[in-house]
Amino acid sequence: MKEMFTTKKMIFLLVFIAAALIAARINFSTLVGSTNQTLTMFQFFGPIAGAFLGGVFGIVTVLCSQIINNLLLHKEWTLVTALRLLPMLFAVFYFAYFHNKSKYKTAGMVIIPVLAIILFNLNAEARQAWYYSLFWLIPILAVVGEKLPGKLFFRSFGATFTAHAIGTVIWVYTVPMTAAQWTALVPVTAYERFAFGLGIAVSFVAVNTVLDVVCDKLEISAETVAVEPAYVLSRRMFSF
């Protein structure tokens, strides 16, 4: 518990929540089938929290930031609003444990998208657009391709498509949509998730670099907030 709640981690937590609250107010796109549910700029960096704070603490931090944001915006607490807290939490899990996983965590990274594919295709209307669920092969392929060049991109796209898988399954069973709508969403989803995946990778490098400089200037151990040297721009070993 002492390692989890260090002063430095608490400072990072507060800064992260502040940034999350600002980003959550900047809409990126509106979800099809709803007029009051949107994707925000928070999608571009939310999953990286667990990499710096640890998986469990990162998930708790993101959950708290989402709840605080909903309270400040006076959002109505419907079933959909509550369930929409889940996708980002699974993305944090995926991103945090991508390079630090046991066989159980690896299984979780694979089982989550597999279950999403199954649940999507159990819905009679969604099943007519079964190819939409192929997006969720990406988190599985990312785990398999971890050791290939471009591992940060595998990690980032795996995280955002894990969030997408959870979010879509929730949407399938709470918001009526036709097969035609799911088909029309294919290019929209490809664009949105490409942007999110790229944004996660860029924000991760940026935060690593800033934290590395701060830790160096203040003579703080980089392990305090789990800086990953491989993704610090100022280091020769920088590699995607």
Strand order of the largest sheet: 1-2
Fraction in helix = 55-70%
Approximate shape: globular
The whole-number mean of residue pLDDT values reads: 82
Low-confidence stretches: 236-240
Radius of gyration over C-alpha positions, nearest whole angstrom: 18 Å
**Order of secondary-structure elements:** HEEHHHHHHHHH
Percent strand equals under 5%
Structural class by SSE content:
mainly alpha
Total number of β-strand segments? 2
Largest sheet descriptor: 2 strands, antiparallel
Distance between the termini: 33 Å
How many H/I helical runs?
10
Overall number of domains: 1
Overview of the structural elements:
The chain is mostly helical and 240 residues long. The protein has one domain (7-231). Helices cover 63% and strands 3% of the residues. The chain has ten helices and two strands, in the order αββααααααααα. It has helices at 7-23, 49-53, 55-72, 79-83, 86-97, 103-122, 124-127, 137-144, 151-174, 179-217; strands at residues 27-30, 38-40. A two-stranded antiparallel ribbon has the order 1-2. A hairpin with a 7-residue loop joins strand 1 and strand 2 (38-40). Helix 5 (86-97) packs antiparallel against helix 9, helix 6 (103-122) packs parallel to helix 9 and helix 8 packs antiparallel against helix 9. The longest helix is centred in the last third of the chain and has 39 residues, at 179-217. The protein is globular, with a radius of gyration of 18 Å. It starts with 6 loop residues before the first helix and ends in a 23-residue tail after the last helix.
